[in-house]
Amino acid sequence: MNVRPPEQVLNEQETRVIHLRDERKWTLRKIGEELGISRERVRQCHRLAKEKLGEVKAHGDEALCLLPVRAARIVQDCDLKSRADVRTAIEMGRIFWNYWGNSLCIDGKRTRNAGWQCWEHLHAWARLPGPVRDRKRASPEALKRPWGEWWLVVEPSSAWKARQTNKSGCDKPRSGNEKPTSENKNPTSENENSI
Predict the structure, then answer these.
(1) In this structure, is the dihedral angle defined by the CA atoms of residues 97, 98, 104 and 106, taken in order, positive or negative?
(2) Residue 95: in which H helix or E strand, if any?
(3) Model pTM?
């Protein structure tokens, strides 16, 4: 899993920039020459590293910077504040994996640019057991469709039959060129004609 422990929040480049800038007091230009990047990029790396370290100091292992970017964006978009909030959102079905559409869903809507790995990261960060990728082995709770009956999988033949059933309620599908018989007519139309 890519959910990092707090002590590994910085990547290699950010670690070197922090070391050279804060401990050795090198200039941005000298650090850029050493690492083969521009002064501006050194400044950006230094600022980002300081933000990450500040977030880890303030929030500990609850810091969003420990999550990969896409998973962190989902947590932010859902306005979740902690691991417990993420866990509750997953358990209550607000965030779920749609096994039928192979997509991560939030509030019943598919997310863009977030796939199975993101789902695994969210589970790991919320300290939930890892999700099961194979639909056949998934638990019944994971296969529930929490957003109503429209998630139900309808067999094509029964869907076709439902569309083809005539309005009088008989189960016999009509073909397109069949005319309605007198017994299939609406009784209110006969009363309107007689008046």
Answers:
(1) negative
(2) strand 95-98
(3) 0.58
